[in-house]
Amino acid sequence: MHPVTRADFDQYMVPNYAPAQWLPVRGQGSRLWDQHGRDYLDLAAGIAVTSLGHCHPAMVKALTEQAQQLWHVSNTLTNEPALRLARKLVDATFAERVFFCNSGAEANEAAFKLARKVASDRDPARDEIIAASNSFHGRTLFTVSVGGQPKYSEGFGPRPQAISHVPYNDIAALRAAVSARTCAIVVEPVQGEGGVLPASREYLQAARELADAHGALLIFDEVQTGVGRTGALYAYQQYGVTPDILTSAKGLGGGFPIGAMLTTSEIAQHFSVGTHGTTYGGNPLACAVAEAVIDTVNTAEVQANVTARAAQLRAGLEALNAELGLFAEVRGMGLLLGAVLNDHYAGRAGEVVAKAAEAGVIVLQAGPNVVRFAPSLVIGEGEVSEALGRLGSALQAFAG
User: Fold this and answer.
1) Range of the structural domain that residue 311 is part of
2) Which residues does the annotation say bind N(2)-acetyl-L-ornithine (predicted)?
């Protein structure tokens, strides 16, 4: 049999990614091993996805048991895992109705379509979606157009219209933009790809008030912040601001593809039979795994660990910075943190990611200036300490 190597990517795959030169072959908890047996401490979690680490026993059990029962039935039938998961999400949030899909982009696509459908049913002249500059909402043509990063939407022909962008955390700009034409305001409680930048409480409160005053819907994209990552099941609960529609994915499946759109019964009724769908959405395998994730994450024990490990990681980064002077600030919420490179090192976050991998620790970037950390929610104190040690070596090598 032909041995698999990184060179196979360059030979067989569409070149829209530039993956690292090493191949992971096994994972356990917050550790990965490559083809040569070298271990890496994972502070990236597959971009905030493997919320319980790699091969968590509760997830393995749920998937294995469901795999021997029922894999797929399509949306012409429903199934027990999907209904159990929907009930648990409703019980744990503001939502009364749930739509399942396969990714964050699909969850946002559904949310944006639903907002437009509600507007169309109520007032066809109301079609504008207002989003934030530097936001990220997915890679479909609609979601990438709502996202406030033109580099991702240019080069694909005409884009969906009636989409406006205003600066993030700028209440005055948002107030000036919202009008009788606005059907939805879309916000990430923490901008992930845009630099791990948390919203202020006042900004989200203003978005809620403006949506109410103008008859628009408020959509929170919690694809990256949701399912325990910020220290609550969903970040909106920490802000005390409730959206009309919330999207979830990434950590929801702990590594198994699933997305969800949560909303109220009144809004959900506008998606009547046949208006929207997905072949795999609500897949029994995905929902069984996500149910195990929710059961594990939505506990005082795991949320306490998120708070404690976030404080440990932030303190460790601050200590390294006191020694090396690389970062202008460390920001974020819970176990979604961003270390912002100072002006002297601006634009070099990718180099830090590469140096970290050489030292055996996996981190991310969020734009050219921010090193992003999004480890497992159940990572241990010792693993964080070990990872900080390796990261310190990497940062020293980077600083030269």
Assistant:
1) 6-55+300-399
2) 139, 278
Report whether pLDDT(2) > 90. Answer: no
Here the CATH number for the domain that contains residue 395 is: 3.90.1150.10
104 is in an annotated binding site: yes
3-class DSSP state for residue 115?
helix
Worst-scoring range by mean pLDDT, 156-160, 231-235, 365-369?
156-160
Please report whether residue 353 resides in a domain. yes
- Identify whether residues 311 and 293 lie together within a single domain: no
Confidence of residue 1 (pLDDT cuts 50, 70, 90): confident
Q: Which of 274, 298, 322 is the last residue of a domain?
A: 298
Least confident of 10-24, 128-142, 143-157: 143-157
Does residue 118 sit within a domain? yes
**Residue 1 forms part of a structural domain:** no
Strand partners, 128: 182
Q: Is 224 annotated as a binding residue?
A: yes
Both tokens of 221, joined, read 């994209």
What is the per-residue pLDDT across 211-221, written as a single tens digit (0 to 9) for each? 999 999 999 99
User: Is residue 323 a known part of a binding site?
Assistant: no
* CATH number, domain containing residue 72: 3.40.640.10
Answer yes or no: is 127 a known binding residue. Answer: no
Q: CA 365, CA 77: separation in Å to the nearest integer? A: 41
Number of other residues whose CB lies within 10 A of the CB of residue 75: 13
Same domain, 141 and 276: yes
Global pTM reads 0.97
**Does 139 appear as a known binding residue?**
yes
Residue 274: pLDDT over 90: yes
CA angle in degrees (0–180, nearest 5) for 334-340-346: 160
400 pLDDT higher than 90: no
pLDDT for 111 equals 98
Q: Taking Cα atoms as reference points, which of 247, 234, 165, 236 lies closest to residue 205?
A: 236
Residue 347 pLDDT exceeds 90: yes
Tell me how far apart the alpha carbons of residues 273 and 310 are, in angstroms, rounded to a whole number: 44
> Is 222 known as a binding-site position?
yes
Predicted confidence at residue 375, as pLDDT, reads: 98
What average pLDDT does this structure show over 14-34? 96
Tell me: is residue 34 an annotated ligand-binding position.
no
Residues 252 and 323 in one domain: no
187 and 46 in a single domain? The answer is: no
Domain count, the chain: 2
Q: Which of 237, 268, 298 is the last residue of a domain?
A: 298
Residue 14 in tokens = 């569409």
